[in-house]
Amino acid sequence: MWGQYPALVEGPPSNVVNGVVHEVQKEDHEKRLVYYEKDANQCALCFIRLGAEEHIFGKTFLWAGDPNDEDLRRV
């Protein structure tokens, strides 16, 4: 957690993160998200499992700072 916000840090490819997928409909919307997140996060590719048999590649935001930063706390 970074304050009240979840922060994703890089880990082994086999790690699983449960969450929500949002499909961005327009390139402009993606650019706004990247701009909004730019100070604390960086955009990264990820593998998304939507169901037992459905998988897609997508993008996520990873913590751009040191994963050992004292601003982050584990939940």
How are the SSEs placed, and which strands pair?
Blueprint: H1 27-37, E1 41-49, E2 55-63
Antiparallel strand pairs: 1-2
Characterise the protein shown here.
Helix content is 15%, strand content 24%. The chain has 75 residues and is α+β, with helices and mostly antiparallel strands. The protein has a two-stranded antiparallel ribbon with strand order 1-2. Strand 1 (41-49) and strand 2 form a beta hairpin.
The fraction of residues assigned to DSSP E strands is 15-25%
Query: Helical region count?
Result: 1
User: What are the low-pLDDT stretches, counting only 5+ consecutive residues below 50?
Assistant: none
Largest sheet: 2 strands, antiparallel
Query: What is the averaged pLDDT score?
Result: 90
Number of strands: 2
The strand line-up of the biggest sheet is: 1-2
What value does the Rg take, in angstroms? 13 Å
Distance between the termini: 7 Å
Structural class: alpha+beta
Helix content: 10-25%
Total tally of structural domains: 1
Succession of helices and strands:
HEE
* Shape estimate: globular
Summarize this structure as a short list of keywords or feature phrases.
alpha+beta, 1 helix, 75 residues, two-stranded antiparallel ribbon
